[in-house]
Amino acid sequence: MTTAETSPHEAVAVWTELICETFVKLEARCSSVDSFRGEIRRETIGELEFSTVSASQQDVLRTRRFAASADDEFLLFSIQRRGEGFVEQDGRIAQLRPGGIALYDSGRPYRLHFPAGFRQLVVQLPKSAIGVDDTRAITAVTHGPGSPGGVVSQLLLAMSDQLQSGGSALAPMVDHILGALSEVLREREVSRPGRLPDEFMRQRVESMMRRDLHDSTWTVERLAARCSVSVRTLYRLFPDGGVSSAMRRMRISAAAAFLCLNPQATVGAVAGRFGFDSESGFIRAFRAENGVTPRRFVSGL
Question: What's the mean pLDDT in 29-42?
Answer without folding.
Answer: 90
